[in-house]
Design brief:
262 residues; mainly alpha; 12 helices
Length: 262
């Protein structure tokens, strides 16, 4: 583990230094984050802006704002930790540099998942935390609900990571996977709203087909004490199942890899 942490510091240190070399990059990233949260808040505003509307799908404005906060927090997690690494898998397969990754004396999946960071998108994480704190301040939140929300959100991050890894691993056969990940990003945009705000068929799709409801709605329900035992148990089970499946899928992809020069 010490060796892994040392390698992470080496890789990420160089990445951070390169990204912070120009101030304009940071300013542009902050403006992008503000634009993204503006779009998310505009969507919530439209839902609750109708005359006489006090709740949508059983959610008050502050409760729905919690969902938006978890959405922004997850967008920050993807932009900072997941996408910078997953997007390079296809390039490594195409150019043959994946050979060097597989030859290193550390787990290849761990290596490709941790060697790059996009610190310029860290404001997304701060905005997400700020929205959650602001929304929770006007709600009845207990220490137990906070612990439950944290545990379920940890499961949510595993789900997000596994989906991205699974989609990116298809690059071992199809090379170009950008369209697939963009498709998921489009579907994930629905997670900025409570899942119960959608019709039942869409709600089923967002919960059991593309499980983005577990990423934002479920932790928000746990924080407000509205979460039932079914989803509370299902979330970590879905995360564990996805992790096992994507791990096996990754190992199968690596076993079938013949390198660009073969």
């Amino acid at each position: 583990m010490t060796r892994y942490l040392r390698l992470i510091r080496i890789f990420t240190g160089a990445t951070v230094a390169a990204q912070l070399e120009y101030r304009a990059n940071f300013v542009g990233a902050v403006l992008a984050s503000l634009g993204q949260v503006g779009v998310a808040l505009l969507g919530i505003g439209v839902l609750f802006g109708q005359p006489g509307t006090t709740s949508v799908g059983g959610w008050s404005f502050r409760e729905a704002l919690l969902v938006t906060g978890f959405y922004m927090l997850t967008e920050g997690f993807i932009a900072v930790f997941v996408q910078p690494n997953m997007s390079r898998i296809a390039e490594a397969v195409r150019t043959g540099s994946m050979d060097f990754t597989l030859l290193k004396p550390i787990d290849a999946q761990f290596n490709v998942s941790t060697r790059n960071l996009n610190v310029l998108r860290a404001p997304d994480i701060l905005i997400g935390v700020g929205l959650i704190v602001y929304a929770a301040a006007a709600l009845t939140v207990t220490p137990g609900s906070v612990v439950a929300a944290l545990l379920l959100y940890a499961s949510a991050l595993v789900i997000v990571y596994c989906i991205w890894l699974g989609l990116s691993t298809t690059a071992f056969w199809f090379v170009k996977t950008q369209n697939v990940t963009e498709l998921f990003s489009g579907v994930f945009g629905a997670a900025r709203f409570p899942s119960t705000a959608f019709p039942v068929p869409v709600r089923f799709l967002l919960t059991f087909v593309v499980p983005v409801a577990f990423v934002t709605t479920v932790p928000a329900q746990a924080l407000t004490g509205q979460l039932g035992w079914t989803l509370a148990v299902a979330s970590p089970l879905v995360a564990a199942a996805l992790f096992v499946v994507t791990r096996l899928f990754w190992r199968h992809a690596v076993a079938s890899y013949t390198s660009a020069s073969s």
